[in-house]
Every structure is written in structure tokens, then in C-alpha cells.
Design brief:
DUF1127 domain-containing protein, YjiS-like, 4 helices
Length: 74
């Protein structure tokens, strides 16, 4: 029975295919925008300013990725 209900749920979701694709694309774009803005802003800081924040230049991409993921999790 569980399998039958899973297949039914998939068929219902496919009915909203275009809308879901647009929404997913918008979410990916928003996540990318936050990522790029964070990378750009942190890259402008000096090594000393990054150290004051507890960061090293090698951590910028990881921190930006975390910020983008948290942004879309809201």
C-alpha cells in the first residue's frame, strides 16, 4: 500500500511541473545571489579584518555557501 500512495503522490506533483520548476529556479537564483554577494563582500576585507571576524581567506567560499543555504532555509 505504501508504494501505491507514493506513486500517486508523484503523479500529483507532476501536475504542477512548470510551476515547481520556476519556483525551484527562483530559489536556486536567490541562493546563488546570496552566495556571490557574500563572497564579494568578504573578499574585499583585508586579512586583519577577516581575522577579527574569526575567518581566514580560505574559508570565504564555505562561509558564503552556508549563508546561502541558511537564506533559503527560512
Amino acid at each position: 500500500m505504501a508504494m501505491a500512495s507514493e506513486h500517486t503522490a508523484v503523479k500529483v506533483e507532476q501536475g504542477f511541473g512548470i510551476s515547481a520548476m520556476i519556483e525551484a529556479a527562483m530559489a536556486r537564483f536567490a541562493r546563488y545571489r546570496v552566495y556571490r554577494e557574500t563572497v564579494n563582500e568578504l573578499s574585499k576585507l583585508s586579512g586583519r579584518e577577516l581575522a577579527d571576524l574569526g575567518l581566514h581567506r580560505s574559508m570565504i567560499k564555505r562561509v558564503a555557501l552556508q549563508a546561502a543555504q541558511e537564506y533559503t532555509a527560512r
